[in-house]
């Protein structure tokens, strides 16, 4: 019932193409059926070859035993020669042309035809090997029928008595052909029955589930955003059942990714609509900020340069948000920057935007330098610091005694500069940890997009560095950034040498 219900999710129009693929001799079911028949026939042939050789040997042994029985009786008549009529009857009854009996080194002709034909082939049944028996059997089938052969061998298990016959191989070949025909038809019957049983079993166990997954993948590809197109795994524990489970999981993740990409495209469309007007507004703000910088006021002179840089960044961000998701970030323009100066600027801006109760601590050496893109590193530290400040605003505990502190640390360890942004906030929820650095899924606050962490990670990776959640911090949240020094090109070494 589960299988039927799952198939109902595929419409007739969706499965039409799949039906065409399954029809004809090229379908998997037809190939399985014909291969099964072929393999069974091959097995029957391998059985037929030694069996037909054994049939030939047994037929000749029967002739020897029959003639030996008559010869022993006649041999007891004390060397009396049989009349030709009795000899002819004996030869006709045994199907031979001549019978001779050897006993104790003496040989006696028991019966012989009037006109004994010339013998063309001889066979010693006492020294027949399996390979020789097969060769002789196919020689008889292919070239026999009109030959006269001599066959001799011991009588029963006796070592001092043997029988010698001359006979035509026509009846032998006819018997072998009859046997081969019977074996052939029996083999075909066995092959068809076996193939049918094997086909039925494999079709139920493998072909139908594979066909079901194939139809589902085709239907899903035509409408990947339709939740009803996700396959419903059967409640079985075999490999195909596991494959259906993995397929359903993959289709679910793909649908979620498509939704996120559509969300991202909608965001880009929205930003593109406001981008033009936003740039005009920011351009006007830049002109007014330039005039403010001319005012002879110490406080204005202090904040005017920061205001200008903030507006410049806003102009750049309005374009970069539009490009996010459909283009990579610009290649870093790496130069030596002072981390203390950069961190101070970030903390000053975030402090103006945040709760005054939040304190900012800088644990950075004044002479610590790193070779990086100044604007991109500003964005990285700004996004992490701003996320930390916003985390305090989401904290439901408004106890005035709680410490609200954001610390920016940086130090050099060999050729790597480590930067930590640590807060004493409530920490990241489990869902945010599972989807860390994923746009639209890794946000730790309600209404957040998670783009800040995603952008920070992309910028750090473009510098050849890494950014991870530092689990060594027991309370709050900490992110660890590691930026390796840029390798010196080999040409530089040569120039210095």
Could you characterize what this model shows?
The protein has helices at 2-7, 12-22, 28-75, 84-94, 130-143, 170-222, 239-292, 298-323, 339-353, 374-393, 430-434, 451-462, 490-496; strands at 98-103, 106-112, 121-124, 148-154, 161-168, 335-338, 359-364, 369-372, 405-413, 416-423, 466-469, 477-484. 57% of the residues lie in helices and 15% in strands. Strand 11 and strand 12 (477-484) form a beta hairpin. The longest helix is centred in the middle third of the chain and has 54 residues, at 239-292. The strands form three sheets. It has a five-stranded mixed β-sheet with strand order 2-1-5-4-3. Helix 3 crosses helix 5, helix 7 (239-292) runs antiparallel to helix 8 (298-323) and helix 10 (374-393) packs antiparallel against helix 12 (451-462). It starts with a helix and ends with a helix. It folds into three domains: 1-232, no CATH class; 258-327; 332-496, Histidine kinase-like ATPase, C-terminal domain (Heat Shock Protein 90), CATH 3.30.565.
Properties at a glance:
five-stranded mixed beta sheet, Heat Shock Protein 90, 15% strand, alpha+beta
Q: What's the SSE blueprint?
A:
Blueprint lengths: L1 H6 L4 H11 L5 H48 L8 H11 L3 E6 L2 E7 L8 E4 L5 H14 L4 E7 L6 E8 L1 H53 L16 H54 L5 H26 L11 E4 H15 L5 E6 L4 E4 L1 H20 L11 E9 L2 E8 L6 H5 L16 H12 L3 E4 L7 E8 L5 H7 L1
Parallel strand pairs: 3-4, 7-9
Antiparallel strand pairs: 1-2, 1-5, 4-5, 6-8, 9-10, 10-12, 11-12
Helix pairs in contact: 3-5, 3-6, 6-7, 7-8, 9-10, 10-12
